[in-house]
Design brief:
There is one protein chain. With 197 residues, this protein is of the alpha/beta class. It folds into two domains: 1-105, Alpha-Beta Barrel (TIM Barrel); 107-190, no CATH class. 34% of the residues lie in helices and 14% in strands. It has six helices and six strands; from the N terminus they run αβββαβαβαβαα. Helix 2 (50-68) runs parallel beside helix 3. It is globular and about 45 Å long. The mean pLDDT is 93.
Length: 197
Amino acid sequence: MVRWPAAAAAADYGRERPALSLGIHLDLGEWAHRNGRWQTVYEVVTTADADAVAAEVARQLAQFRRLVGRDPTHVDSHQHVHLTEPVRGVVFEAAGPLGVPVRGCTPEVRYRGDFYGQTGKGEPYPQAITVDAIVGILAALPPGTTELGCHPGVGDDFDSVYRRERAAEVAALCDPRVRSAVTGHGVHLRPFPAPRP
């Protein structure tokens, strides 16, 4: 998320580890389910305006390149807004020349987003981010490439609708039983391929 203050530190971390895949998480806004309906927390551009979305996507890609010094290895968006039109078309047009996967849209890379500690309405769902949950996901993976969405993090000094769940994800992902499941199920962890030159 190149719009936020921590982007520079994340880019520094990535530049020091050139083998690390770094994707762009396009940030066009955030919405929270409150009082029985979705409400805007903030909006960068109106997602119904294809021209505004295209300009913002181009701006964020340029900022990514300035910060990281290379193209992203994959593309997705905050709260999956790239899955609906007109954002989807804009994102495909931007990602196409890079030759990189777009989360949930590139057939060669399946996406699993069920390791997530909230329901579709933002209600707590802690049973989805346990060791048992991730071990179950690993056991059921079909052959091929799968991206497992996760949002681990430490600290409580940031504002996010998913702040509390991040530490629980860290605990589950770092549990030795998860590493054993990766090995036991023959899962090979790998980065996204580098973008086409």
